[in-house]
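Example complex used in Figure S2.
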Amino acid sequence: MEKFIKHTGTGVPLRRSNVDTDQIIPAVYLKRVTRSGFEDGLFAAWRNDPDFVLNQEAFKKGTVLVAGADFGTGSSREHAVWALQNYGFKAVISSRFADIFRGNSLKGGLLTIIVSQEEVEALWSAIESKPETAITVDLETRTVSYDSTVLNFVIDDYTRWRLMEGLDDIGLTLKQTESIDSFEKTRADYKPKTLPILK
Amino acid sequence: MSKTLAEKIWDEHIVRRADGEPDLLYIDLHLIHEVTSPQAFDGLRLTNRAVRRPDLTIATEDHNVPTLNIDKPIADPVSKLQVDTLRANCKEFGVRIHSLGDAEQGIVHVVGPQLGLTQPGMTIVCGDSHTSTHGAFGALAFGIGTSEVEHVLATQTLPLIRPKTMAINVEGTLKPGVTSKDIILAIIAKIGTGGGQGYVLEYRGSAIRALSMEARMTVCNMSIEAGARAGLIAPDEKTFEYIKGKPHAPKDFDAAVAYWSTLFSDADAKFDVEINLDANELEPFVTWGTNPGQGLPLNASVPNPAEITDAEERGAAERALTYMGLTAGTPLKKIAIDTVFLGSCTNGRIEDLRSAAEILKGKKISSSLRMLVVPGSARVRLQAESEGLDKVFLDAGAEWRSAGCSMCLGMNPDQLAVGERSASTSNRNFEGRQGKGGRTHLVSPLVAAATALRGTLSSPADL
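Predicted assembly (662 residues):
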């Protein structure tokens, strides 16, 4: 995974709450067996609307999505994270994220940042009045800054360290193989197994 | 120290705990399907890693499989590639798979319980958010993303931050015609789609204990619609009885029951939050908007956004009414339906089919609509046919299909057309969920059947 330390880009104001993962990428776009190419499906239904924010020239190059509350609810599809990343987003800012989406995003290196709804509103106003506003997302200092505003955000130390080092979660867990081996020896015999197949 | 049920299961699965790190949790069962697994298997190949425990892993084809002509090759080449990829991956990595045509094929959350692989006290994961269904057995079960699927394949563990706990107490007796679907829709309307974020929900109380296992699965299934990754119910005699005799029920059943009987929240255990719901007051529930929290009793009318004080919610309601093509003040029972969908991991089990068939028996569905009946698994379909339910549905004018996720998410050809309106026993009424431009009202199987007969949203009491 690519290291994430700091990113500066322009913002895209998505003034909607409860954006579920079916909106981020509808199911019909989930049939690929690769991790790339999902940008076509990003907000597919809304992109037919010429007024949709991603269709506006001023916001086409944005890399920081600023969304309403409860972003990423619904389906666990990690394709939602890939679609945002494939399109070019590096970070999403919202006052609340759904649990599974947030977990997926932080596994995959898309930084999801929680700030208050008032801070989201202020950021929306700033971006809408001046789309070229540079937004810097700094994982090292745990801040989002634009114009003269600096917002602090919370992220647990472990996830921050993993993102800043670009570490593969599986590699880290495989270092604990001995613990897993010894745990397995303590599992009860009556726990079910899928193999062999029983009728 | 007293613990909640969720805390007990969590603690019993900790492989490693270290300060400042997530707990490393052992996973007892990993369910797999074609849509969220191909990239995970690819990851294993790229890093030359094996599946650690194929014997704790099982795959089935459900999300994008057709429900007609399943004996023929899948017509959509992209869907076919995805299913073929799953088959090849399972073969390469030694994972058990139930393919189209197999009696055990079906929706992953119907298949696990029917095989007896879902048991109390287990940790169960799947790359699907409705994995919470298995919580009905007192298992800690939750949906994961594809990176986590790969993680579980490689290590049989997941690093996770311990969730908070929420008790949802449902006391009282349901009126006739009110089901567990109405309980969960009412809960989601009460706490909102974000209300359960960061929590494991535990459903408790006399109304929950009175539910059958399949009805409990319906409740737990939609925990994610309230924002909670997992929802569970303490196991009891009904749970043990349901598992008994299933293919993978424990051989030493008594030893298992002795352990399962310890799985309850201690009397003095502290939940972070407690919510109460009066079952006596519940009515059949239906959604009017585009998220599962936008629901009301069927006797109500489409809400007026102008009366909603919260600006965010008001905006969402206005957008929802526009999308749904509804006018504030319209009685919900006046809403005409084009398609009735009976199926999904929420309501595609044998009891769901039986309850709908009982209402349809000897009657004809309205000529103004179509009705799709999609069993949750091939096993459910066979059971229904042995009871003659297929005849009841066909005689009533409904379509009798093969098993799969079908119109719940419209990944296969079973989709709504633009502007088409459904009464659906599934779990999500998101914009475009059942087909681009489609409009979804979430309902119970009883409301679905009554609606099919009358053509407008109806409860059995209206017949």
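Chain A is about 30% helix and 15% strand. Chain A touches chain B through 62 residues (CB under 8 Å).
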